[in-house]
Each structure stands twice: as C-alpha cells, then as structure tokens.
Amino acid sequence: MLSPIHIAVLDTETTGLSAVTDRIIEVAVKLLAVDSAGRLLSEVAVYQSLHDPGIRIPRDAIAVHGITDAMVRGHRIDADQLSGILGRADLVVAHNSGFDKGFVRQVVPHADTLLWGLFLPRHPVEAALPAAVEHVAAGAGAVPEAADRHGAPGDGRRRDDRQPAAAGRAQRRGARGALDAAEVARQGVMLQRLSMYFA
C-alpha cells in the first residue's frame, strides 16, 4: 500500500488585505491524509488560534469576520505547532493561497517554501483532492489557481452559519458568563468552516 498524501487545508482572518501592512488575527488548519485517488482517509491534525496583532482591528475588517480587539487580546498563534502541521503537508490548500500564504509567513517565515494550491469556496475540498494528489504525485508544483476566487479576507459566510460550532467551542473552553453574544457567535467559525467541507 502506498503512503498517504498529506494535505493541509488552511484559512486565515486578518486586519486587512496587505500582508505587508496588515496582520493575521486567526488561523485554522486541518491536516488530512488522502490516498492516491484523492479519497479522504483520515483527519491527522487540527489547529486553530486567535492572534493579538498588537494593533487595533479596523471596523471594516470586523464587519467582514466579526473578530474584535477584545476577542484577540492576549492570544498568540503557536508558531511551532502551526509550523509542525504545515511541515507535514505535501500540499497546503486555501481559498486564496497567495493571500493566506502572505499572512501565514508572519508566523511561519518559511511558508514560501511550502507547496500551495487553491480551492474554490463554492466547491467542497473533497472534489479538489484528486487533482491536488495528481499535482503532488507529478511533482508539477502548485495546484493551478482558478479565476473564480473569493474576495479576501471575507468569503461570503453568513453570520448565522457560525452558531453551532461556536457554541461547542465556547462550552469546551468553559465559556464564562461574561462572554457577550457576539463573541460566542464568533468562536469556532474557522474550524466550522473547515469542517463543512468534509461532512
């Protein structure tokens, strides 16, 4: 039996559109093992974290992702953990890999050395896995980026899509009664969004 191929599915939220002047404020990644036909074998690792950018989050960015200054205060992305997961991947895929890679580079400086590809927001990742496996196996480089991209950092999510996973994550963290409704609604959105591709 051939060794599985590892694909990291990643998403970020940021303070704006420029990886030079703006900052990453959240990352979520799932490392998946797939077979040579692109069939999902298992979920190998999951990591999600908020990140205090050290600057105020602009209102227009908050309007897109709902992450406030209070939510990120004191949180840091564990660079070693994120780097470890990404380092195990044969391919890293994201809705807009060029955008996400620039922000991941703020935490994992060698992000440019990883093989990056793109999947479309309206199509399940599972539908893209066979093509991703072909590219990895052929040593052809990154999966070609399609013209039909979402606008970063927002990807058209509806706020009501955030509720189920948010409540579960807040409960696992032992959510305090002081958490306001907006924060509880926001918590878990990244992993929920990644999870929906593999339901």
TL;DR of this structure?
It contains eight helices and five strands; from the N terminus they run E-E-E-H-H-H-E-H-E-H-H-H-H.
Could you explain the architecture of this structure?
The structure is a single chain. Residues 140-191 have low confidence and may be disordered. Strands 3-2-1-4-5 form a five-stranded mixed β-sheet, sandwiched between helices. The two termini are 26 Å apart. The protein contains eight helices and five strands. Helices cover 33% and strands 20% of the residues. The protein has 199 residues and is of the alpha/beta class.
Give a quick set of tags describing it:
five-stranded mixed β-sheet; 199 residues; alpha/beta; 20% strand
Secondary structure elements and pairings:
Elements: E1 5-14, E2 24-34, E3 40-50, H1 59-65, H2 69-72, H3 79-87, E4 91-94, H4 97-104, E5 116-118, H5 125-138, H6 163-172, H7 181-186, H8 189-195
Parallel strand pairs: 1-4, 4-5
Antiparallel strand pairs: 1-2, 2-3
